[in-house]
Amino acid sequence: MRFIQTFELAPFLDSFVSLFSAFVLGTAIGAERQYRQRVPGLRTNVLVAVGAAAFVDLAARIGGTEGAVRVIAYVVSGVGFLGAGTIMKEGANVRGLNTAATLWASAAVGACAGADMVAEAVMVTIFILMGNTLLRPVVNLINSRPLDTIASEGEFTVRVTVNDEAVPTVRNQLTRQLSTANLPISEIETEEVSDTVTDLVATLVATSIDAKALDAALANLRTQPDVRHASWEMNTAGSE
């Protein structure tokens, strides 16, 4: 058998240390995810870490350093594809980004272990666990703070529904109300709703909007007899 001819104890033990290290460190990362009841959890993170370690170790033994480097590049892209499957979009919300990032980081741990950099793999694992645990209270604190001003990269749109004959008058009132509130307008478009009703759609140029000032401006417009509806919304580029 070729196995008997090619088997060498020292390289085998080296591979065992790499894979066992990836298993233990992947377990540490996955246990935290499992405790948080996140999917993928324990087993997936372990498999990603061990799989990455196995591929890198195999490439290093067969093709040397150059082969290992090429395989690491494929591991990065392959696990990125796997992580994309955990990301879900629910309306304006995006979920699973942290889970995908954790899988990606687990692969980095496995790649370090497979390259015989066990100490570096332990260090990466510690940082991953710190990111998923120690930073959680900071995130909760930030999210719990009330925001009087909405600051985000996005587009702010004001929509006012009016009777057709009052479009010019309400357009002037809308411009004046927003300008008084220091909410500069990029453009105002009209959208026909029916034969007698038109929407005035104003796009604001600022990326930081005082919500109370905008609500107050629209409240004044709603008192006008020809205004049927007035509201605003923010269309963000994306969030976690």
Automatic annotation (TrEMBL):
Domain MgtC-like C-terminal: 156-232
A GO CC annotation given for this chain: plasma membrane
Species for this entry: Beijerinckia indica subsp. indica (strain ATCC 9039 / DSM 1715 / NCIMB 8712)
Protein name, entry field: Protein MgtC
Matches recorded under InterPro entries: MgtC-like_C (IPR048640), MgtC/SapB/SrpB/YhiD_fam (IPR003416), MgtC_SapB_SrpB_YhiD_N (IPR049177)
Transmembrane segment boundaries: 12-30, 42-62, 68-88, 100-130
Compartment(s) where it occurs, according to its Swiss-Prot or TrEMBL record: Cell inner membrane; Cell membrane
Domain MgtC/SapB/SrpB/YhiD N-terminal stretches: 19-139
Top-level taxon: Bacteria
Protein family (similarity comment): Belongs to the MgtC/SapB family.
Membrane topology term: Multi-pass membrane protein
UniProt keyword Cell inner membrane, yes or no: yes
UniProtKB keywords: Cell inner membrane, Cell membrane, Membrane, Transmembrane, Transmembrane helix
Stretches of the chain forming a coiled coil according to its record: none
Function: Virulence factor required for growth in low Mg(2+) medium and for intramacrophage survival. May be involved in regulating membrane potential by activating Na(+)/K(+)-ATPase.
The UniProt record lists the keyword ATP-binding: no
